[in-house]
């Protein structure tokens, strides 16, 4: 068979393979950027997509993960993870090319259902390729450098994403102002280019060597039940599922909110996205280093509350009509969420790899992806329904000042269709975090110890890690401010 695995890989083969995986990651990121969520949502809105259809669009990447069972079946039958990954990636990227060609044949009348049809197969074959790629990488990347390597791969990919996103945002904004009739076809061209970039990534992936793996020769149903009987892995599944449900009930609609409610153009939205990516790039290497040195669970316990704060902050965006104040708040949200998401996602991926036994990694990771996909795919659908439900409902919290010469009212909180959704998402993330302490990870170090060590490290590298320093110390800074205020109030009372 083509792509025959090797019994053992030399150190040189591993080194060359890892370098190729880095290049493949950047090429794949070019595809992801060109067909990125913001651009795809804008494209769907141009075609007249409803809130429910946008929710369905957001749920497809995770819904199709239930087909990862096919990946395990193919690997058991052929014992060739590279072949499964490469062939399925080819089948995934072709629909993206066809999706891009769609407007050139049907114009603006192209149905949203056809867009969803092509995306279904794009995500379907990508989901089948995923478990084989993950298990392949687990055997290829040395265990003591999982966090370091994948944070490096992510950092390179996101740097490319930033550069490419700037170019695309400037180009689209220019065309929207000078030739709006071509906007739909610009998106279509981008998606075709995404498909071509994806096929180029497959060519690189085919060159990466694969060490031979051995799956136990037992009933496939029993294999899938085994991870569910692993108590610790079961606890990870519960937390991961609840976390993804909470995150995905609101996150897919942030872009829709900025486009439709705030009326922002891509010229504003893409730079905000870039801010988030830059924050991720600056911090992900740091999260990866500490995840390897201490534990992934500790990184989650530090980063996840920061993300919860960001979701709550979305409820205050748009309270006032002033563009500058809204953009300032959005900038802070994107910076903090970029860093926190980088740490959380990296740690969630690595803890799954870490808790999966080496010989059964493909099964454990597939079960993890299948179970979590059910929750993360339902969330955007429920989110879309809730957004429609709250369309005609509002909650306003207003403070009023009335005096002889001045009467003034201040909006403290304004909840409507999207803000209700964001608040629900924030509440659910808090609930999900209550299940994290139940997960056990080897080498786990308490969060307070790691934070103290991180602060010490940051003081000696303050210029390089200014963003992380602010994020790590924000709890302490807030407590100190409150303490100072309390002391000042006590002193004032004593003086009286």
Automatic annotation (TrEMBL):
Keyword set for this entry? Answer: Membrane, Transmembrane, Transmembrane helix
Q: Which PANTHER family match?
A: INTEGRAL MEMBRANE TRANSPORT PROTEIN-RELATED, MAJOR FACILITATOR SUPERFAMILY (MFS) PROFILE DOMAIN-CONTAINING PROTEIN
What is the designated name of this protein? MFS transporter
- Top-level taxon of the source organism: Bacteria
Q: Which residues cross the membrane?
A: 30-48, 54-76, 83-106, 112-136, 156-172, 184-206, 236-259, 265-287, 299-321, 327-349, 361-387, 418-436
Keyword match Transmembrane helix? yes
Asked if the Swiss-Prot or TrEMBL record annotates the protein with the keyword rRNA processing, the reply is: no
- InterPro entries xref list: MFS (IPR011701), MFS_trans_sf (IPR036259), Sugar_transport-like (IPR052528)
């Amino acid at each position: 068979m083509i792509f025959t695995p090797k019994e053992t890989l030399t150190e040189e083969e591993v080194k060359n393979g890892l370098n190729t995986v880095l290049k493949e990651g950047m090429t794949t990121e070019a595809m992801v950027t060109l067909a990125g969520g913001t651009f795809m949502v804008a494209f769907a809105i141009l075609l007249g997509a409803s809130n429910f259809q946008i929710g369905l669009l957001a749920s497809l990447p995770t819904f199709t993960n239930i087909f990862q069972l096919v990946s395990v079946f193919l690997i058991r039958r052929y014992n060739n993870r590279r072949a499964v990954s490469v062939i399925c990636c080819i089948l995934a990227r072709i629909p993206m090319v066809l999706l891009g060609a769609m407007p050139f044949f049907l114009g603006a009348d192209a149905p949203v259902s056809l867009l969803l049809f092509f995306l279904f197969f794009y995500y379907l074959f990508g989901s089948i390729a995923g478990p084989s790629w993950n298990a392949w990488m687990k055997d290829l990347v040395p265990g003591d450098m999982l966090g370091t390597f994948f944070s490096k791969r992510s950092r390179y990919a996101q740097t490319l994403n930033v550069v490419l996103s700037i170019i695309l945002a400037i180009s689209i904004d220019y065309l929207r102002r000078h030739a709006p009739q071509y906007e739909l076809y610009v998106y279509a061209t981008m998606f075709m280019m995404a498909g071509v970039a994806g096929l180029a990534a497959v060519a690189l992936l085919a060159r990466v060597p694969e060490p031979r793996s051995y799956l136990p020769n037992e009933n496939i149903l029993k294999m899938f039940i085994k991870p569910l009987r692993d108590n610790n892995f079961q606890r990870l599944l519960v937390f991961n599922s609840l976390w993804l449900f909470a995150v995905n009930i609101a996150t897919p609609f942030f872009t829709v909110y900025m486009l439709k409610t705030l009326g922002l153009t891509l010229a504003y939205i893409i730079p905000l996205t870039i801010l988030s990516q830059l924050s991720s790039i600056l911090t992900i290497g740091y999260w990866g280093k500490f995840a390897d040195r201490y534990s992934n669970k500790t990184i989650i316990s530090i980063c996840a509350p920061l993300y919860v704060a960001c979701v709550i902050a979305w409820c205050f965006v748009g309270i006032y009509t002033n563009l500058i104040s809204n953009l300032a708040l959005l900038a802070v949200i994107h910076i903090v969420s970029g860093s926190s998401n980088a740490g959380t996602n990296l740690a969630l991926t690595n803890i799954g790899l870490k808790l999966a036994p080496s010989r059964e990694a493909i099964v454990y990771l597939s079960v993890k992806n299948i179970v979590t996909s059910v929750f993360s795919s339902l969330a955007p659908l429920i989110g879309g329904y809730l957004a429609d439900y709250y369309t005609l409902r509002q909650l306003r919290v207003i403070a009023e000042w009335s005096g002889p010469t001045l009467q003034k009212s201040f909006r403290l909180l304004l909840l409507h269709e999207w803000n209700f959704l964001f608040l629900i998402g924030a509440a659910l993330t808090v609930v999900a975090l209550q299940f994290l302490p139940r997960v056990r990870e080897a080498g786990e170090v308490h969060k307070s110890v790691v934070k103290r060590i991180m602060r010490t490290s940051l003081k000696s590298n303050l210029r390089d890690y200014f963003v992380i320093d602010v994020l790590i110390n924000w709890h302490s800074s807030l407590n100190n401010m409150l303490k100072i205020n309390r002391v000042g109030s006590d002193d004032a009372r004593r003086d009286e």
